[in-house]
Design a protein that fits this description.
Layout: E1 2-5, E2 8-9, H1 18-22, E3 25-33, E4 36-37, H2 40-54, H3 60-73, E5 78-87, E6 102-110, H4 116-121, E7 123-127, H5 147-153, E8 163-167, E9 173-176, E10 180-185, E11 188-192, H6 202-213, E12 218-221, H7 225-230, E13 233-238, E14 242-249, E15 252-253, H8 258-272
Parallel strand pairs: 7-8, 7-14, 11-12
Antiparallel strand pairs: 1-2, 1-6, 3-4, 3-5, 5-6, 8-9, 10-11, 10-13, 13-14, 14-15
């Protein structure tokens, strides 16, 4: 593992960092393959959008320079690159933001190949009891306030349940614990509208684009558990794991992976090519 803080090697966080103190930060998690950060421009665009939403400056030039340095010094076949922008407190206490200037963190960690069995045969998942707050101002971006996801992941052992489905406080289906979700019904793909909660994932965007090019309708709208129950198939996706069809969600079983497998074939080279 190698970490840069504002362009310099680091092993700890500064006390003036509001990210660890208040969650006043954004992050991105990218797959690295053969020295290349997959979908880097799209991840930086979402990071820039997040900066605008929480009133933080976006240091694109410095980030790109630091990313290039890490990639060149880390020759692993497969790794995870984590970017984080966290507001500086300037030594002041309280909630008021004293600056728009962020600390920059870039970290690269080698990882094994994702589990091919999950990709091909599907996963077992559960509906989390922990609910996501609805806050339109933070919807779509990847901020560091992840405590609901941490609590949801702790509900069931990951060895038995590879992923969990998360709902909002009003009962809307939002996303997986570490992923976005899609359902298929009558040859149409549906994915939750993320205007009140959830992260608008990059892999989610690629799935939508892939389906639309193939002429498969994709509809973003509010989904409930009734939609999940009536669906022909359900799958999760994110930038690191790819696409995981769901074979079982608590007592629900899915036998069709048809549309998921089609999108998998189109995007497979991203993770396994």
């Amino acid at each position: 593992m190698q970490t840069l803080h504002n362009g310099k090697p680091a092993q700890s966080l500064p006390f003036e960092d509001r990210g660890w103190a208040l969650g006043d930060a954004l992050f991105e998690t990218l797959l690295v393959r053969q020295g290349r950060a997959v979908w880097l421009d799209e991840h930086l665009q979402r990071l820039q959008q997040g900066c605008a939403q929480i009133q933080l400056d976006f240091p694109e030039k410095a980030l790109r320079t630091e990313i290039d340095a890490l990639l060149k010094s880390h020759p692993s076949e497969r790794a995870v690159l984590r970017l984080c922008l966290s507001r500086d407190s300037l030594g002041l206490r309280g909630y008021a933001a004293a600056t728009r200037t962020p600390h920059r963190y870039c970290q690269i960690v080698p990882v094994p190949e994702p589990v091919r069995e999950y990709w091909e045969q599907g996963v077992r998942a559960f509906v989390a009891q922990t609910r996501l707050p609805e806050q339109g101002q933070l919807a779509g971006i990847k901020h560091t306030n992840r405590l609901p996801h941490v609590l949801a992941r702790a509900e069931r052992p990951q060895s038995d349940f590879s992923e969990g489905l998360m709902l909002s406080v009003s009962g809307l289906v939002i996303e997986g614990i570490a992923s976005n979700c899609f359902i298929a019904k009558n040859e149409v793909l549906f994915t939750p509208l993320l205007d009140q909660a959830g992260v608008a994932g990059i892999a989610r965007k690629k799935v939508i684009q892939s389906a639309q090019v193939a002429g498969v309708p994709v509809i973003e709208r509010r989904l409930t558990m009734a939609d999940i129950t009536a669906a022909d198939e359900l799958f999760f996706c994110n930038s690191l794991i790819g696409l995981w069809p769901v074979r079982q969600l608590d007592c629900l079983s899915y036998s069709s992976f048809k549309l998921c497998q089609w999108v998998q074939r189109d995007l497979e080279s991203v993770w396994y090519g």
